[in-house]
Design brief:
alpha/beta, 37% helix, 16% strand
Length: 359
């Protein structure tokens, strides 16, 4: 049976990356697999992937395709040109493209390609330089801060749609107002805040957010955001945008906010498919596109087992007034705000929902 929509995340360069970010969650994931990296996707696998997308979609169906890594641009511009060309040959399919990048390899040729093919680009930039240089650097441990800012200027020159992705660490959590001021000064209008997670094997990762820091950061950042909004300057922040929708009775667009998982179809460069970017581990492998269709993968026993175990409530959820709203939240991310003693997300909702419901 074909469908009208499918969302796929592709790892064209597997876990390969030209940076050595201190908190990289995908490096942590890949190091916990039997094969850490499958290298750059070969054309045979690319052809299989495109074929599987085509056979999955009904006429005038929409494929929402995002590229992540590692660092996806390591695969080279020729890979992306080939991918877009092969997808364009399927005239019954419409494609929405997005790509998440560390921004260091972008040049005018990349930017022109992004513009011509209507890519939405997410650029990882952890705020001001002192914070960036502490966590994000190249293989020689050198700063990439100004390289990224210059390359963002190139995206703007070519009028490429982009947003800023910021990982909120324990260290950055104490500078919410400074971070918001940084966004204002650089005229960044679209921002995604990403809580820093502990590693899979280390629940005491020194830079990960704790519930106390989570609530303190988001509440302080929200106050700065709301004050600016009252002046008529709207900055899109992913969490607040989603909560605003929910406050007015709509569904959030961000995965995990309702406390239940969906199969996300994360495609590694060898054709392996996983149900979620946080769970690209051997034990969660759904199968391989060379052997199975997207429908077969979605209906597999592994997919069903993954969905059946997606709920992750803890003691505070039992008496929480927002439990129907979040159901414990994302089972991987809630480690930052939910434990057996408290829920920092509840404190954030108490703070922001009364304001958002009036906006």
């Amino acid at each position: 049976m074909a469908t009208k929509n499918i969302s796929i995340m592709i790892k064209p360069a597997s876990s390969l990356c030209n940076l050595r970010c201190l908190y990289c969650f995908y490096a942590d994931i890949s190091e916990n697999r039997n094969v850490a990296s499958h290298g750059v996707m070969q054309e045979e696998t690319l052809d299989t992937l495109v074929q599987r997308i085509g056979e999955t979609l009904l006429p005038e169906g929409i494929a929402h395709i995002s590229f992540q890594g590692g660092e996806p641009t390591v695969a080279g511009l020729s890979y992306f040109r080939m991918f877009v060309k092969k997808m364009a040959e399927m005239t019954h399919v419409k494609v929405n493209y997005a790509l998440q990048t560390n921004g260091t390899l972008i040049n005018e040729e990349w930017a022109q390609f992004f513009k011509e093919n209507h890519f939405l680009i997410g650029v990882s930039l952890d705020g001001f330089q002192t914070n960036m240089d502490q966590f994000r650097y190249d293989a020689q441990h050198k700063s990439v801060y100004y390289t990224i800012l210059r390359n963002i200027d190139i995206l703007e020159k070519y009028k490429v749609d982009y947003n800023i992705l910021t990982v909120v660490t324990k260290e950055l959590a104490g500078h919410a107002k400074g971070l918001f001021r940084f966004y204002k000064e650089h005229h960044f209008k679209y921002v995604q805040l990403i809580p820093c997670l502990p590693g899979l094997q280390d629940a005491k990762e020194p830079h990960a957010l704790t519930p106390k820091e989570y609530a303190g950061f988001y509440n302080e950042f929200f106050d700065a955001w709301a004050a600016e909004l009252r002046k008529g300057n709207y900055i899109s922040v992913n969490l607040f945008d989603n909560l605003a929708e929910m406050a007015h009775g709509h569904m959030p667009y961000q995965c995990g906010m309702l406390g239940r998982c969906n199969v996300q179809f994360v495609v590694e460069s060898n054709g392996d498919v996983y149900p979620c970017d946080f769970y690209c581990l051997d034990e969660y492998l759904l199968g391989n596109l060379h052997d199975q269709s997207f429908r077969q993968l979605a209906e597999s026993a592994h997919a069903k087992d993954f969905l059946d175990h997606s709920a992750c409530r803890k003691a505070p959820c039992e008496t929480c007034r927002y439990v129907r709203m979040c159901n414990g939240g994302c089972r991987r991310q809630n480690i930052c705000y939910l434990n057996d003693e408290m829920c920092a997300y509840q404190k954030v909702l108490d703070h922001v929902l009364p304001v958002l419901s009036r906006m």
